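FAQ

Q: What does a record look like?
A: Structure on top, sequence underneath. For example:
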């Protein structure tokens, strides 16, 4: 594997871990939350530097349905991350406290909640859209799985995790934060830390599952359409 590819995967993995801790602000505390968020911002910049070619090709080539989905998710994720950074700077009491910003907190607080939860979902979808590539890396390292039973078991395990993720999505009131029907994030301090991370990883798994298999369905539909119109022989 090329060093650039290793760097990309390492940064994406680190961002995923940081994202989970950032969602646990009540557990980490405000100071740690700000520093973790700063780390996420730095990794986000590095991610875009390493993927600069993607930006250069935005207006080039033909847009298939799958490419349109990829682009839409990436652009929305960019907006949510930008909104997170802007609102975080306004709300900051430590890392960015030196900025001469007065006011704006009433708007920044709901904006931060909105962008955080949409960002979590969009980053999970982004991960799912690239899940095939991630699986390919593991296949190269460990070899393909030849047993049909094992493959079926893994798919069923993924489906079960996605179902649990849907339960956790509802239980943790994601929709109320994504559409700002709740002004504050409710946090159950009696819930064990392990359960918190298990539920949020499951929610992430739900959207990875939806994006990964949604991609497969879209590829099949696009392939059938091309054959029907005579583009493929």
């Amino acid at each position: 594997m090329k060093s650039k590819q290793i760097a990309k995967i390492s940064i994406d993995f680190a961002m995923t871990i940081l994202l989970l801790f950032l969602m646990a602000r009540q557990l980490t505390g405000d100071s740690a939350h700000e520093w973790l968020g700063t780390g996420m911002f730095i990794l986000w910049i590095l991610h875009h530097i390493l993927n600069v070619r993607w930006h250069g090709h935005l207006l080039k080539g033909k847009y298939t349905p799958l490419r349109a989905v990829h682009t839409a998710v990436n652009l929305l994720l960019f907006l949510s991350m930008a909104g997170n950074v802007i609102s975080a700077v306004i709300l900051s009491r430590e890392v960015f406290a030196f900025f001469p910003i007065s006011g704006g907190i009433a708007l920044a607080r709901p904006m931060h909640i909105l962008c955080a939860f949409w960002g979590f979902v969009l980053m999970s979808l982004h991960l799912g859209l690239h899940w095939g590539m991630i699986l390919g890396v593991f296949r190269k390292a460990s070899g393909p799985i030849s047993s049909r039973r094992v493959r079926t078991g893994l798919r069923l395990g993924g489906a079960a995790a996605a179902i649990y993720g849907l339960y956790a999505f509802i239980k943790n009131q994601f929709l109320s934060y994504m559409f700002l029907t709740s002004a504050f994030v409710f946090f159950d301090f009696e819930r064990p830390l392990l359960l918190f991370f298990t539920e949020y990883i499951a929610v992430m798994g739900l959207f990875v599952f939806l994006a990964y298999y949604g991609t497969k369905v879209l590829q099949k539909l696009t392939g059938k359409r091309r054959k029907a119109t005579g583009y493929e022989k």
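Q: Is there anything notable about this one?
A: The chain has a mean pLDDT of 88.
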